[in-house]
Structure formats: structure tokens, C-alpha cells
Amino acid sequence: MKNKVVLIGCGNVGMSYAYALLNQHTYVDELILIDIDNERIIGEAMDLNHCLAYSPSKVNIRVGDYNDCNDARIVVIAAGSNQNPGETRLDLIHKNSRIFKSIITNVMINNFKGIFLVATNPLDVMTYLTLKYSDLEPNKVIGSGTTLDTARLKYLISENLKVCPKDIQAFVIGEHGDSEFVAWSNANIALTNINEFLNHDEMKKIEDDVRDSAYEIIKKKGATYYGIGMCLVRITSAILEDKNIILPVSSYDNENDVCISTPAIVNSHGVQEKIFIPLNEEETKKLTKSIEVIKDTINLLKESNE
Ligand code: NAD
Hints:
alpha/beta, Rossmann fold, L-2-Hydroxyisocaproate Dehydrogenase, Chain A, domain 2, 16 strands, about 40% helix, binds nicotinamide-adenine-dinucleotide
């Protein structure tokens, strides 16, 4: 079976993902572009194909349609409206839930059996809707979750301590949104708890900066996309190469009937296993709050029959 990836939504995020894929050794054989702006993606496919002479990967890139989902291993969804300045991720909910209903229906009509990877905001709710509309097994529906927030966290800690971001063991968990939080009690560097290196005020500043990053970038340049593009590539390669990478993706939490981010083992089955890291009392309260925020939004949609 070919490693075929269908990308639905080829705006800033979708194309940053596509471009990042071409810049890395990935096992993607075919990349299919779908968007309502058909003219634009013809141009995007041409532009991407012109990278191949210098790309480390050999990928067949073309504009496609929903029939392509039939034998796809991954459908990545980055379609939908973006946050306007001052708009929260949750404000997008009504616009994007309608878009998702039609997208998921079109994918499933074509007998898709692979893994959904969702990037559209509000992320946890869109991941949940993908699961419900598709009726696939929960392990096959993944949201990028707090992978981006965790990347931002690692970057900021690394700047503060002058340590490579890859050597920092720390996670942002919960909602990909304002109620997200850092599980500081388990964060460590070289098996040494992070509180040996950072004091309370430094941790608070880093956590606030992580949470505000998207707002800050949107205010300055209108949208964020390179970071999430790299996160989506990392999740894609965990799936296609069956890597068992631990990533804080959003996936179904059976107990609470929400999709939410905790570290999880990601491989060719999708989310192989969610890892519930031990949290202290304060962090447990924050996780409960995050679950409530996501649940409230889902209930809002249920009330308006969306
Ligand atoms: P964008 O406006 O640049 O791109 C969205 C694309 O979706 C457009 O090309 C549009 O034509 C397409 N589209 C709209 N409706 C469609 C449909 N029914 N079928 C197919 N395509 C459709 O927006 P963007 O900056 O790429 O952001 C996309 C989403 O990603 C937003 O919801 C944004 O908030 C989210 N985002 C998520 C993260 C994350 O960490 N998960 C980070 C950044 C942005």
C-alpha cells in the first residue's frame, strides 16, 4: 500500500505542512491537495512540484478530489476559518463545525479506512466532531493538540536555560487553547526536576508566554503556520514509519467523552495509547477545568444541533 496523504485545506497551515514534508525525509509517496479554491491549489501543486529537484523526498504531488480518500493512509484537515485578531479559538466553532460536517461526510462516503489528523481550531472540538461524524475507531482520529504549545514551551525553556529544546522533557497538556497548562511537576532536564533550574516566577512567565504565543503572532503577522506545519510532519512520520513517538496529541478520552491532549504513543495504528502522567493537586484541577471548557463547547453545538 502506498503512503498516500490527502490534505484538505491548503491555506497557510496546509501549505506550511506540505512544504515542511518536502524538506524532510518522509515516507509520503503521494500528496493530494483538496481545497474549495481550486484555482489556487493548481498553483500550489505546481509550486510544490518545483521543489522536487532539490527535495530529499520523492513525492507525487497533485490536485485531487474526495475519491482520493479511498486508499489514503492519512487525511490531514487544515480547512476552515482562521482566528481574527482578538478572536478566541472557540469563537470559530460554529463556522468550522459546518465545514467539518461536509468534509468528513465526503471523506467517509469514499470508504476511508486510514487515520484522520486534524489541525483546524478549536482543535479539540474539531477532533471530537471528526470522530463523531466519521464513526471511526477512536485511535484513528488524532488532533495536533498541544504538540505546538509543547514545542513553544521547549523553545522558551531552552532559551532561558541554554539547553537544546530536544533535551527538555516537558508537556503542555489539556485544551489546545486558553485553559491549557504546563505539567511542571513532571518536567525535567537530564532526569532532574525543572524546579532545580527555574523558579516559580520564571515558570509562570514561560507558561503565560506559551499560552499567549498564538495571539502575539496573529497580532503581528495575521496567522501562525510554520510551527504547526512541523508538528503535523512529526505526527505524520510517527504514523507512516510506525515510530511509537510520544506526542501530546488530542485524542478521545472515553471517561469524559471529549478529545483532549495528554502525551500519547503514536504509531501506524494512530494513537496506540494515552499516557496519563501523574499530576499534583493544582494540575489535576487545571485538567478538570480544561475538560469542562471543551465539554461546554461540545454541548453548545449539541444544543444548536450542529
Ligand atoms: P487559511 O484561511 O489560510 O486556510 C484555510 C483553507 O481552508 C483555505 O485555503 C480555504 O479555502 C480552505 N477551506 C475552507 N473551507 C473549505 C472546505 N469546505 N473544503 C476545503 N477547503 C476549505 O487558514 P490557516 O491559517 O491555514 O488556518 C487553518 C486552521 O488551522 C484554522 O482553524 C486555524 O485556527 C488552525 N490553526 C491550528 C493550529 C494548531 O496548533 N492546531 C495552529 C495554527 C492554525
